[in-house]
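A reminder from the course coordinator: this example appears on the midterm review sheet, so study it carefully.

Given structure:
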């Protein structure tokens, strides 16, 4: 019998909810979203329309996604803890979980990586403030892996995550971190994200163990491929299909799956012949692997299937790669839908995290103040690697950017 049918759902307050990816995964794992909030009008409209669609969490149960959820359209900076509590909540009410993925653009490799200099980077602090007001039993935060090596108010690599941890600990919360790949939890997408658990009065749970792997070993199933997912979802609507056109058609048709049209080579210290990358809008997906990370852009990867012309992944296919259930509503233009989908938390990974936290809540007892564990060894290796790369290549990258501006 499904987990959500056997046990009473625990309460979660959802911040930066977007189109609802994190909420979908958590509700599948047995949580109940008490309130969900976002400042984005299209995200709020999508949540309300999806709530109205009354999509069942699983076919054997009776609960629907976002059932009785308060959907709050507001800037997180204007919210206070009581604004997110149930209408009939007692004065000392606290949620079992506060969850959210603050805007990732300040830390993402796809953005300018301005960190705390970007006003959106400061919204992490609003989540910490609301956690202090609500005092949830657990906190779950998700963000891009670029946050791990980012500088903070000081310039050193890894300074941002150290500053964030220090702020949580000042308020009595212990925190633990991990990098997780959605493909390791059944998603047909290689999407690596930085995840944080926090608690002030409960033992911190271990992060979930992978259920899938590329090598299909250690009791894991094989990764789900993009081709397998496309074979089991409805064929695309004709109006959603984008075919190649213009001067790049010949270049795209010559691509081998898993490659793309190259960008200009940037000469770097350890790459005297140039550091080549791929144009983000001109990559041909490998159907025998999970897809690359779904982006918040209306130019997803190209696919080439036997008997079909080359085309881009549609927004509906990207939604399926993110784990959204069929029938979930995305309001707005085509570009808005891609943005909402690409910015969402992948639901299979959210489910694994939600189940882990649900089990921990059932086993743990309040009153024992937890301690933040040491960072994983691979964290420090990544931070040292980013620092070494910066020392070797910062000057050449700055010269390259200056030439681009000129």
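Designed residues:
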């Amino acid at each position: 019998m499904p987990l959500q049918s056997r046990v009473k759902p625990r309460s979660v307050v959802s911040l930066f909810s977007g189109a609802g990816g994190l909420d979908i995964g958590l509700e599948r794992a047995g949580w109940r979203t008490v309130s969900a909030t976002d400042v984005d009008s299209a995200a709020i409209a999508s949540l309300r329309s999806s709530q109205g669609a009354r999509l069942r969490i699983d076919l054997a149960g009776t609960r629907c996604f976002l059932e009785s959820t308060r959907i709050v359209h507001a800037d997180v900076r204007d919210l206070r803890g009581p604004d997110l509590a149930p209408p009939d909540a007692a004065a000392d009410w606290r949620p079992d979980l506060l969850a959210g993925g603050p805007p990732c653009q300040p830390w993402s490799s796809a953005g300018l990586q301005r960190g705390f200099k970007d006003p959106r980077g400061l919204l992490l602090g609003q989540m910490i403030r609301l956690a202090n007001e609500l005092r949830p039993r657990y906190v779950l935060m998700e963000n891009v892996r670029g946050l791990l090596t980012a500088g903070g108010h000081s310039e050193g690599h890894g300074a941002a995550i150290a500053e964030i941890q220090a702020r949580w600990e000042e308020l009595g919360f212990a925190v633990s971190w991990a990098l997780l790949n959605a493909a390791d939890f059944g998603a047909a997408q290689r999407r690596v994200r930085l995840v944080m658990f926090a608690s002030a009065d409960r033992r911190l749970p271990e992060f979930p163990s992978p259920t899938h792997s590329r090598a299909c070993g250690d009791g894991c199933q094989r990764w789900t491929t993009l081709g397998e997912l496309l074979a089991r979802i409805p064929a695309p609507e004709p109006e959603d299909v984008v075919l190649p056109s213009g001067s790049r058609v010949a270049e795209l048709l010559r691509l081998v799956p898993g490659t793309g049209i190259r960008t200009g080579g940037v000469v770097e210290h350890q790459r005297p012949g140039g550091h080549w990358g791929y144009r983000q809008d001109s990559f041909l997906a490998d159907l025998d692997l999970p897809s690359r990370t779904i982006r918040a852009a209306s130019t997803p990867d190209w696919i080439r299937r036997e008997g079909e012309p080359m085309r881009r992944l549609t927004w509906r296919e990207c939604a399926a790669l993110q784990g959204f259930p069929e029938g979930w509503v995305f309001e707005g233009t085509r570009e808005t839908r891609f943005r909402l989908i690409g910015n969402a938390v992948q639901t299979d990974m959210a489910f694994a995290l939600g189940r882990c936290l649900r089990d921990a809540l059932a086993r743990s007892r309040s009153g024992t103040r937890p301690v933040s564990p040491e960072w994983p060894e691979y964290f420090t290796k990544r931070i040292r690697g980013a620092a070494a790369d910066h020392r070797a290549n910062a000057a050449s990258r700055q010269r390259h950017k200056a030439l681009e501006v000129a």
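The chain has two domains: 3-219+342-402, 223-324. The chain is about 30% helix and 20% strand.
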